[in-house]
Predict the structure.
Amino acid sequence: MRVKSLRQASRDGSDSEYGSLRSSTSSRADLEVYEHEEAQKLGSIGILAELNPPKFALLDGKKFVSGKAETDYQLDLLDQLAIGDNVIFSLEGSNPIIKGITVRSSKLARLRMDTSKKSALRAEEHVIAANIDIAVIVASTIQPQFNPNLVDRYLVISQYGGVSPLLCITKTDLAPAPDISMYEGADLPVVKLSNKTKDGVEKLLPYIKGKRCVMIGSSGVGKSSLINSLLGDELLLTDEVGRKSGKGTHTTSTSSLHLLDESTMLIDTPGIRSLGMWGIDKNSLRLYYPEFAEFSPNCKFRDCTHSHEPGCAVKKAVEEGLIRRDRYDSYIRLLSKE
Ligand SMILES: Nc1nc2c(ncn2[C@@H]2O[C@H](COP(=O)(O)OP(=O)(O)OP(=O)(O)O)[C@@H](O)[C@H]2O)c(=O)[nH]1
Ligand SMILES: [Mg+2]
Ligand SMILES: [Zn+2]
C-alpha cells in the first residue's frame, strides 16, 4: 500500500513520523512513501549513500551505484531525500531512476531557518539521516572544547527521532576526558578514544556492529577521523582545526555512507553550526530526559512540565540530589527556548 507522499504527510502535521512541517507551499513533485512490501514490487531498493545534487549514489546490496538526476522532476525528488533513505529505483541504462522511498523507521532532524521566506514558512525540517539505529554523538575533549549543552540537544533530537544515542569523546590524547558524570542517569553509553593513537577505538565496535550509525557533532570534533579510524583507512578528508577561523573549518560538506562490513554502516555528516530543535513541543521534551521517568509519575499534575508547577516530584528529586542539577538546568533551558 502506498502510504502517502512525504509532502502530504508533512502537511498533515498530525503524522508524528514526519513532525509538524506545514511550511511548504511550493508545487514541487511529491516523493511517494511506500510500505516495504509494496516497495519491493515496484523496483529495486537501494540505500541513499551520497547526495550531491544532481549527483547521488545508492548502496545496492554490497555495491554502490552512482546516479544523476536528469530531469527537474528527478531533481525535485532528490531534494526530498535524506542519507539512509531506502530508495525505490529502476535502472535506465546504468542510471537509477528514483520512484519513491519506504517509510522511514527513524530519522535525525533539525530545524533549518530559511531567511528568504516569511514567518511560518521560514522553518524547514532538515533530515540529517533516515533509518538510523545509532547516533554517535561525537564531542572532543578540546579543540573544540567539550560542550554539554550541545550534547544535550543531540540527545534530545536522537531520542525524538527514534535513534539510540551514544556519546563518543575524542582527542583523549590531547587532554583528559571531561567530567561526564551528569549522564550517569541518562542511559547513555560513553566511549572515550583517540583517533591519533587509536586508543579506545575498538571499544566502539560492540555498540555499532550490525547497525546503521550516524556520526553527528560540531565541526572539527573528529567525525570523519573516527570513520577513518574504524575503516583503518584515510578515506575521508579531515583537516586542522582553526586553520582559517580559529573556530574550526567545515571540512566535510556533504554526508556520505560507508560500509564497515556487510551489515555495519557508518554515515559521516558535516558539522552543524546551529542545532534547531525540530517538532519537539514543550509537552514532550521531558520524555527525552530518561532520568526524570522514575520520579515524574509522582508529580501532582499528570502533565507536569517540571518547571513552575507545585508538587513536582522531579524538582524535589533535583533538590535531593537524585537528579543531576546540570541536566535539569539544561532541560529548563531547552524548554524556555521553544
Ligand atoms: N590529536 C587528535 N586529533 C584529532 C582526533 N580526532 C580528530 N583529530 C583532528 O581534528 C581535526 C578535525 O577532524 P575531522 O575528522 O576533520 O573533524 P570533523 O568532525 O569531521 O569536522 P567537519 O567535517 O568539519 O564537521 C583533524 O585535524 C584531525 O586530524 C584525535 O582523537 N586526536
Ligand atoms: Mg568531517
Ligand atoms: Zn513535575
